[in-house]
Design goal:
heterodimer; A: 183 residues; mainly alpha; Rna Polymerase Sigma Factor, Chain: A; B: 132 residues
Chain lengths: 183, 132
């Protein structure tokens, strides 16, 4: 199992220089988290795989646009997020999936590692995740999978920090409610 | 007890081989070995990179060639019996000579036929008027 915090620096500089082994290491590190994120948004296996492939190709092609090497993960997830949006726009489903949330909510203070879910709650947790509106699901997944900060999530989803805080607040509230209902 | 991350990643463990295949495919397409000699490089850059376009063009040319070929065959079949003007004149003279030999006693020689004097006819004024 991969850990959230990286002990070794990722070979982003080598990847920039065009080293295939560096790209292999980067893709190997992110392939499953990226797939999980995309799959949990689109809920389709083949679409998830297609988006991961498109993201990898775009990453190799546009690595020059990455500002800071330590932001590689967020940058990669941002590409995948945009690919999902493009697909939704193409299918004219975005309007029904997007939910506008007004006002900013409370700060999200707890780390994803602090939230522990018992085995008997796992299925319910996944169901809840599926039931959440896409914007809330997106911020929750990015927080859970890669422990991205709110600012990083705002960058990935190209939304305002206040909106991300609000979405995170409502998603977290729904999750807490679940855990309280099924102690 | 598990973290949400652990739950999510474990749920999608089975997809790992397919993700490995995608990763290998992307890397192979990006870092495939460059052709060693110049001819292979030209082939790769000029033809192989847009092979679908070239194949489509080749297919169109084959169709056009076949249509052209079939029309040429039909035209040549129609024109086959005809001869050149020189051959036609020669054949006509041969036939004339043969006919003359066969009918030598019935047709008077050309020298024996008196030549008719040329009498110019008046030009028609009607046709000129109508033409105007």
């Amino acid at each position: 199992m991969q850990v959230v915090a990286e002990l070794e620096p990722m070979p982003v500089a080598q990847a920039r220089a065009g080293e295939a082994a560096a790209w292999d290491a980067l893709f190997r590190r992110y392939q499953r988290p990226l797939y999980v994120y995309v799959y949990e948004l689109v809920r389709d296996e083949q679409t998830g795989l297609d988006v991961v492939q498109e993201t990898f190709i775009a990453a190799v092609r546009h690595i020059g646009s990455l500002q800071a090497d330590d932001k590689f993960g967020g940058w990669l997830f941002g590409i995948a997020h945009q690919k999902c949006l493009q697909r939704w726009r193409r299918q004219n489903r975005e309007a029904s999936r997007q939910e506008e949330l007004a006002g900013a909510g409370a700060e999200y203070e707890t780390s994803p590692a602090e939230l522990l879910i018992r085995r008997e709650q796992e299925t319910r947790f996944m169901e809840l995740l599926t039931q959440l509106p896409v914007p809330q699901r997106s911020v929750l997944l990015l927080h859970f999978i890669e422990d991205f900060s709110l600012a990083e999530i705002a960058g990935i989803t190209e939304t305002g920090l206040g909106t991300v805080k609000s979405r995170m607040h409502y998603a977290k509230k729904a999750l807490r409610k679940l855990l309280e209902e099924n102690p | 007890m598990k973290t949400p991350r652990e739950i999510l990643l474990e749920r999608h463990q089975a997809i790992e081989p397919r993700l490995d295949a995608i990763r290998r495919e992307v890397l192979a397409s990006r870092w495939e070995p460059a052709p060693s000699n110049g001819l292979a490089r030209v082939w790769q850059e000029l033809f192989w990179s847009c092979r679908r376009t070239w194949t489509g063009l080749a297919a169109v040319w084959v169709v056009l060639f076949l249509i052209n070929l079939s029309q040429r065959d039909a035209a040549s079949a129609r024109l086959a019996p005809s001869q050149s003007p020189a051959e036609t004149i020669m054949a006509f003279r041969d036939q004339e000579a043969l006919l003359r030999e066969l009918l030598a006693d019935r047709i008077p020689p050309l020298e024996a036929i008196p030549a008719r004097p040329f009498e110019p006819k008046p030009r028609s004024e009607i046709s000129r008027t109508t033409a105007v």
